[in-house]
Amino acid sequence: MSDTAIPSQTQSKATPKQTGLAIFSGRRGLKRREALLAYLFLSPAIIIIGLFGLFPLVFSAYQSTRAGLNNVVGRPDGLGQYVRAIDNLAYVLAFWLALFCLVVAIRNVNEIFATARAKEESPWRWLLPAFLSAAGLALMLWLIFTFMPGVLEIGEQLVGFTAEERNELFPQFLAEAWRAPGVSSTFYYALLAFFLSGLTYFLIQKNSKPTLRDGLYTGKWVTAVFLVILAGALIWLTFTEIQTAYAEALEEGESLAIWAQMVTISAGFVLLLLSWLVWRTAAHRDSNMQTFLRFFAAILLMVGGWVLISELPVVIAEGDEDWWISLRTTIFYVIGALPAELFFGLVLATMLYQEIKAKGLFRMIYFLPYITPAVGAAAVFKVLFSGNPTGTVNILLASLGLEPLRWLNEPSGVNQLIGQSLNFTVPEWAAGPSLALVVAIIFGIWKYTGYNVVFFLAGLGNISREYYEAASMDGAGRWAQFRHITLPLLSPITYFLTIFGIIGTFKAFNTIFVLRTGAALGTMDTASLVIFDAFNRDTRIGYAAALGIILLLVILSATALLDRFAKGRVFYG
Amino acid sequence: MSKKYIKWFMLLALIVPMFLVACGGSTEEAVNDAVDAVEEVADDVAAEVEQAAEEVADTAEEVMDTAEEAAPAEEEAAPAEEEAAAEDMGPCAPATDGPLAGVDPRGQTVVWWHNHSGGREELLIEIINDYNETNECGITIEPLNQGGYNDIRDAVNASIASGEVPAALVVGYQNDQAFYQLNDTLVDLNEYLNDPTWGLSAEEQAAFYQSFFNQSIHVAFDDQRLGFPPNRSMEMLHVNMSYLRDLGYDAPPTTPEEFVEMSCAAAAASESGVGGYVLREDASALAAWTFAYGGNVLSEDGTEYVYNSDATVAAMTMLQELANPGEDGLVCAYLFDGFPNPEVANRNALFSMGSSSGIPFYVGDFNTVAEEAGSEADEYAVAAIPHTTADPVMNVYGGDVMIVKTTPEQQLAAWQFVKWFTSPEPHARWVEASNYFPTNAAAVEYLGDYNEQNPVWATALDLLPYGIFEPQLISYQSVRDAASEAYLAIVVQGADVQSTLDELTETANELQAELLEEMGG
Amino acid sequence: MANQAVPVTREPAKPVRSSFDWGKFFTYFILILGAVVAIVPFLATISISLMNLTEATSQTFIPSTPQWGNYIQAWQEADFSEFFFNSLQIALITVAGEVVFGVLAAYAFARMEFPGKNLLFGLFLATLTLPQAITWVPNFLTVSWLGKVTPLQWIDNWPALTIPFMASAFGIFLLRQFFQQIPDELWDSAQIDGAGHLRYLIQIVLPLSKAPVLILALFGFLGSWDSLAWPILVTRSLDWRPISFGLQSFLQEAGSFVHLQMAGAIITILPILVIYFFTQRQFIEAMTRSGLKG
Known about the structure:
The complex is a heterotrimer of chains A (573), B (521) and C (294).
Chain A: H1 5-14, H2 26-63, E1 66-67, E2 75-76, H3 80-86, H4 89-119, H5 127-157, H6 163-179, H7 184-206, H8 214-251, H9 258-282, H10 288-309, H11 312-315, H12 321-352, H13 359-371, H14 374-384, H15 392-399, H16 414-421, H17 435-461, H18 465-473, H19 478-506, H20 510-513, H21 527-537, H22 541-566
Chain B: H1 2-24, H2 27-53, H3 57-70, H4 72-86, E1 109-114, H5 118-134, E2 140-145, H6 149-162, E3 169-172, H7 174-182, H8 190-193, H9 202-206, H10 210-213, E4 217-218, E5 224-225, E6 233-240, H11 241-246, H12 256-269, E7 274-279, H13 283-292, H14 310-323, E8 331-335, H15 341-345, E9 351-355, H16 359-373, E10 380-383, E11 394-397, E12 400-403, H17 408-421, H18 424-434, H19 450-453, H20 455-463, E13 467-468, H21 476-491, H22 497-519
Helix pairs in contact in B: 2-3, 5-18, 13-14, 21-22
Chain C: H1 22-49, H2 53-56, H3 69-78, H4 80-111, H5 117-127, H6 136-149, H7 158-162, H8 169-179, H9 184-192, H10 197-208, H11 210-226, H12 229-234, H13 243-254, H14 258-288
Helix pairs in contact in C: 1-14, 3-14, 4-8, 4-11, 4-13, 11-14, 13-14
């Protein structure tokens, strides 16, 4: 890093001497300088995450629109892979995603005008540079899709050459792919758009009175315009795909009801949303009558919503059943493992933070499970939870006078097993997670509780003990202290652990992969495992990518929900 | 503050390796390191002296000698090539006509990705070293354990997609070959096999067990021969003979009826009433039972799965009855978590089923158990899967070696090695080292007294001619998973045999159709 | 350091020092219970690793005579020593990069204003949500191509094994959470002293954030130590194969000998235990220092 350059640059701000470029002077310049420095700090992370995090994302998005076996080039397939996975819900989701983009765009525009009205300015002039920037961004995105096929074909072109020849030929082929029609020109148009955007931006800025909000306006305009372009593209894609589907159905003499389904499902969700809104406002009414009426209306709306949504099973009937089952398994896993991991982690960390003996020893022991390599730990758990009567846990059960269980080999739901022992039959839908999955959940809790303990301890270390001293003075008991000091001050770390816990458990792979048995009859297969099988065993790259994108959307919505919930509850002090 | 970190990290970086060295105590490594160090010094010296050479020529010459000594390998290789080029009539000279005319395999280095580890890998490396030293073409084979079958496939596919050079020689199953060939990754071995200069004579070809020899000819890919069998294994019944005799029988079962009777006799003899046969939760077992009942899991034309034939239904019904507690409360077959070998060695079970490549593990377990108990080891035997057919029908499987499209020279060099590796004498050596079965019948006479020393293995060898194989459709890997689940659902969960197998057949064919659709075919 | 911890004294007004402190008892009870659950699988592993075959496959809890020879046998058969060095090298390089890049990026997110901040952060987070299995192929393409257009050798060398893991959204997010808690007054006074961002980061922020940085380092190390599928994919020789590969092969090789498998597993855990043992002191110091505020 150029750490010599940075201090001199920042020092210049303390001294009145202005040496730098004109664009880095003044208050605007200060902000620009900070932004530049921030990007300098971020550059290694951006490069690495861009290459090894973002590229796979883009690659998957691209592959998910293509079909082919063991083939990274594939043939265009539109939304075909998504339809294979979740049937007509794919169209509905694509449409919603477009709507969502539009809603966010409108919100951005609203915010622009709200700020502008308050400051009595006109934000319109910033639209031109923003539009150009957004167009540039969209062109860049488009570039990925036009450039990718040519690049991916290079692999095949290199077959039959030696390693040295390949190293020489690769740049040549790369250049060829770049020169293919519509690739480099897109790039140059994008550059032109960016350049024009910058130019107009400075021209406008120069000819207007100084305000610090120009960046704000431009940023929001860019987001809004870009989202509108994205939404347009999505709607166009959905529409053409639906048209093709109808055309195909017509040829085969089948009837399709995508439009009807789309309207039904969307209306159902809109009703549910309305119901929730009405419900929320009901509590704030003054008169009982009004409250009652609103509750009544909310319930009516909800019923209507559910009736419409009950169409859903029909809509997804042709989808991949394994995928739906795996999503349910995943949710079982998340609900089973994550809260327990967090709860035990918090309890143990708080206790450990008190004045107790052998702290180091306890800490060491709690951390043992996490540092055990998954392969080794799984081997241990397989022996412990072996379905044989000679398995360790079964010996323990036997010593308590209980029947041995089949653990990892048991595909029946735990509720069914409990029901069996109490002599009544539990229906299929209430079977719950299989015992095999429960062992995987136990494994997850065992492995990750210590991990959470470490984070909570670090968080506790950040809380000043003066808070506690003051609270003790006021006569607050331990529980009160925990409730009003520890919990709020730990909230940033809790938030962090929950976000990553959700991401981690939703895509849990290792802990389950190493434990999965054939005898569990697939009841342990979470979403990640189904994706793994599609990708590695069947080499259906496009399909696996589509499943991956769906899982990504699921995880992102879950984290967004959590984020909404956490807003205002996370206390940074 | 930051200095403290650095110190601490360096300390860690120092202490831990030292600790490991102390623990590891591998002198061989220390010597290697020392040699490396010396070579490095020599290189350095050479580099420095090269600069000095301009000034003092005499000194330079002297030291250049030192540097040359440090790299004698290069020196030797160069003249060898020159010699070969001088007289193009030697052994391994390129053919003058035919499809492979002008392709010169000499001096090629061929990387081989295999899946063998541990003792098997060590012996494989020994055999290959001998080849590298003695082969007249100057071909060098570099073997590398590239993980399991799946890891190898991932590595090859990723290499092809990115334009990286994959190994010229890889190990894999027959359905992997189909996946590879979608990308035109593999060489059609017919081209080499039937080449007048480099191929095998009709006689030599006839020496191979024909069913394995032709296993890798793929109808779906214009009858290309995409793999070559270096070894095979067989699904067998493993038996604790001493226990069997104690129960009053003198030979392993040949029919399902005998098998059921003996299993239940063992269950009756055990304290818990559970015993007899350890169930195997693998699709190969399902296929093996179907074969033994005279059926197949593939339709006649080889394009569709048939898991609901009478043979499969009968076999599964038999196993289901065996695993369910009978009227007498006996459980004559049970599922065991982990390897079944110790169960059989411990007399907890009488039979188990599994690959013949497990024979040495069974022998080891029988001996270890006896050793630990301080008694004499039980006698261990293998037998054909009890069958309703006149002759046994055995499920034989195993990976192939495949030649990946690289350069014509590399491909030919790889073929030269494959040819040598499956020729009788080295083949016999590999068979002895690996405990696998030979694919070249001519190797049997080179086995010497190996047969006598390993009587169990010899019995199994006699069954080899009865071998047939499992489907090799492109979907077979995923169908295996489905089949294994259906099998367990029937045998362990007590699901209805006919309907479960009907469903499995449907699922299997759907999976095949799904992949074909994805292929765009 | 222990006496700095939470409630130093109970309320002085009510010196209820009863003969038995139920709160303390409860605390210890929970702690010991947790410890037992955490450690039992370990003890079981150690116990099994010292059994012979007959014991390991029957209803036995504790071996009659500990078979220490199992460890020697596992060590000799598995040939772990070379794999240890490889893993150590890979892990140290990865961790060094992860910490440096993570600290810089997290600081930018926590303390600096720049356009596109939220978008970038969201993108970073989104990269985490993709299942690993489908990232292998695109990432292999990237390292392969990088190997062809840069002078570095990527495949079968340290770059392919370490660089992809040198920046993680996880680490950046973690550090950001901690950096955000540092009070603004410190930044204001640093500015008055004429310190820029980098100096403030190194002299004030880092010393205050020992604990999270150590955690990041440790977890980065563990993650690297545990990885298996990616290293196999990008290595073409034994020179860079990690310990998990050694363990995997050994587990296969040991077959039905559960006791040897367990001994092998314990051996691979040992170095991490040693490292953890060394860092333990640092951890305690970092974590139990008094808070920042007030």
